[in-house]
Amino acid sequence: MHSPIAVWLVKNRLMLFLISLVLIGVSCYGALNLTVKSDYKIFFEKTNPQMLENERIQQSFSSSDNVLLILNPGDGEIFSREHLDAIESLTRDAWLTPYSQRVDSLTNFQNTFVDGDELLVEDLVSDALNMSDEEIALRKDIAINEPLLVHRLISPSGHVSAINIQLALPEDQTVAIPEVIEYVRTIRDEFVQQHPDMKTMITGMAPLNNAFNEMSQKDSETLVPIMLVVILILVGLLLRSPSSITIVLVIIILSVVTSVCIMGWMDMPINNINSAAPIVILTLAVADCIHILSHFLMGLRRGLSKEDALIQSLDVNIKPVFLTSLTTAIGFLSMLSSESPPFRELGVVSAIGVIAAFLLSLTVMPQLMMWLTKKAPNIDTERTKVFSGLADFTIRHPKKLFYGSLTVSIICIAFIGQNELNDDNFGYFSKNLEVRQAADFTEANLNGVNIIEYALDSGTPNGISDPQFLRKVDEFVNWYRQQPHVTHVFTFTDTLKRLNRNMHDDKKEFYHLPDSKELASQYQLLYEMSLPFGMDLNNQIDLNKSMLRVTVSIKGVKAKEILGLERNAQSWFENNAPELKTVGASPSIMFSSIGQRNIDSMLEGTIIATLIISAILIISLGSWKLGVLSIIPNAFPAAIMLGIWGFLVGEVNLAVAVVFGVTLGIVVDDTVHFMSKYLRGMEVSNGNINKSIHYAFEHVGAALVTTTIVLTLGFGMLALSDFNVNATLGIMVASTILIALIFDFLFLPSMMIHLQKFLGKSKAGNESQ
Question: Is the Cβ–Cβ distance between 183 and 207 less than 8 Å?
């Protein structure tokens, strides 16, 4: 007797088909609201404490959004007439960059000196082609001994220089950043044509944000089409049915289109992380199709009519496909506990896509199967003989497989502790990208690309001239300069020291802070009045002159070292200047901090999802014992993968937090399908465990292998992404899915045989011995 639901679905398939198409059409209107947003801020809540402090610094001083042009002459010498003239020219062009607020370079550095009683401020290099060798040598001596320049705009040896373009970007940077990057690339290309011996690279915060956007677009344009082709080839090879290829193609495209368009209805902008959803959805949608199609084709091979074969396929698969879709969606929805909004969005969109795929497989696919399927394939798509042999193997060696799998799993899981969370915002990008290459070159030759910024508050307007405040700031700066990995500290106190020395005949012994508030105020006023337009001090001093900005550049570090430096800085404040204590802020700090918080928040969501999924399995399997035992093959694969990762790699990034959430619902699919066929086998065989295991392997083994191959390749395709967060996520999820299949084939049946007394099924009797 067939399920009335299956019969109803087949009898009303045309009506359901048409209703589904109408609903899909309605959802497509959401595409009109789709937008793209891919700057680094998308990873953080607006209430994120590091984000708030970073915003406070940006509002108090000029913005730290920038483009950094790195100049590397072929002869290794910046200080030649031709190269200095080239820097002068490029500096002028840089001022025309859209949204540019300030441009700092070696040539326009505001050098100070005294002529008589007058303080003069002028560009360090002007009209380089007409400078004498002695003048150039003097400029080089000044530059490589100036704390505000060396390791910031010039390397200590003078072989590499930089031009920093400071930007004042609007709140919505979607259009502004591509506009900036297009202009900078244009002047860079023109510059290289005129000066082919000067290698010029682009890095900085704006190029970093632009890279987020470009990677999102590139992944959507390349990985999705590649995955579609791979899936269709696999479906064709494994099902050997041309019509199945068309059917699967229609279902996965409709599933992806529906879920992406719903993003528009939800006002959810597309970004680097949630742009992976189409790959996730089309991969998971195939699983539903394969289970229904493979059983349908098997019925046709046995001589059933198309309608009877379709009813039988739906009768067998509705429950397991519903359960797998439900548990997969719950697994993805566990990502709602993520600390990072894009991962929450990925979870929601993927869950919507999974449910859409399930509904379409029951409403659209039956009509397509009736229309398009002409005949059954001539081969056994279930590979009964192969999986019958595998069933025999597990039945012959239950204890060895049970304890062997358990031992290997525990050994692997023991290495989880070897993983260290070490996020790196530039390290998120592949080494073949210019923004990454430029960042690596900058760190190796000029300055660290990671920064920590502090807004040190004197507490009163014009308080930055207070000698006591300045001394504490200077002590903090000097302490930081002695810390490992610190390459440069940018601070106004260095300018005051230089001015004090200038005003005392440039005698080295006077290179210290002014002794009185009046003198410090006078130096500051004289200096500001002499600065040209656009070169004011707002990048270092707030408008009320109550705060000083200190920017610390560090190199060769990742999250662990960055957070360690910040903790040490907080200890310095507590012990030396509690009145100045403030938290460090920057994108580097933000990314370093969010990784651990994301893991902590996802842990709670994963535990809740595990409990819900376990309860669903207990109810659906009709046995609390089977439900409890099923937790092991569902929870172990991700833990095993993380252990192997800890042994082989040892470093994880922001992606690791969501691996359990992504994989939990997916790996349950194998368990649900295997257990559902096992329970049906128990009914057919009158409770014989060995025959039931044979039934499960023979009727679902091929489908599980097929779906695993598709899922593994689908998520593995993310490994091709130049965005390393997605690449890591893809590798980890693909590995977990593969491990889950092996675990289900070897451990799950051996567990059921080995624990048959606990399960209350003893009819296997001596057959299991």
Answer: no
The CATH number of residue 155's host domain is 3.30.70.1320
Beta strands at 420-421 and 651-652: parallel, antiparallel or unpaired: parallel
**8 Å CB contact between 349 and 274:** yes
Nearest to 520 by CA among 483, 473, 555, 480: 473
Q: What tens digit of pLDDT does each residue of 28-79 get?
A: 999 999 988 877 888 898 888 889 999 999 999 988 899 999 999 999 999 9
How big is the chain by its Cα radius of gyration, in Å? Answer: 32
pLDDT at res. 742: 92
For residue 610, give the nearest of 660, 658, 676 by alpha carbon.
660
Structure tokens at 177: 């950043």
* 312, 295 contact by CB (below 8 A): yes
**Final residue of a structural domain among 184, 218, 252:** 218
- DSSP-assigned letters across all residues of 491-535: -HHHHHHHHHHHTTTT-GGG-S--SSHHHHHHHHHHHHHHSPTT-
Compute how many other C-beta atoms are within 10 angstroms of the C-beta atom of residue 339: 22
Mean pLDDT in residue range 642-669: 83
| CA atoms lying within 13 Å on the CB side of residue 413 | 13
What number is the average pLDDT over the span 401-416? 93
Give dist(CA 326, CA 70) in Å, integer: 52
Those residues whose C-beta lies under 8 Å from the C-beta of residue 445, and which sit 6 or more positions away, are 72, 155, 159, 160
**Buried b / exposed e along 116-140 (16+ C-beta atoms within 10 A):** eeebebebbbeebeebeeeebeebb
Backbone angles phi, psi at 649, to 5 degrees: -115, -60
pLDDT tens digits, residue range 185-227? 999 999 999 999 999 999 998 998 898 888 878 888 888 888 8
Shared domain for 213 and 348, answered yes or no, is no
The reply to whether 14 and 120 lie within a common domain is no
Provide the residue range defining the domain that includes 316: 1-33+240-372
CA distances from 646 to 415, 641, 661, 677 (A): 6, 9, 19, 35
- Domains in the chain: how many in total? 3
- Token digits for 323? 């359960």
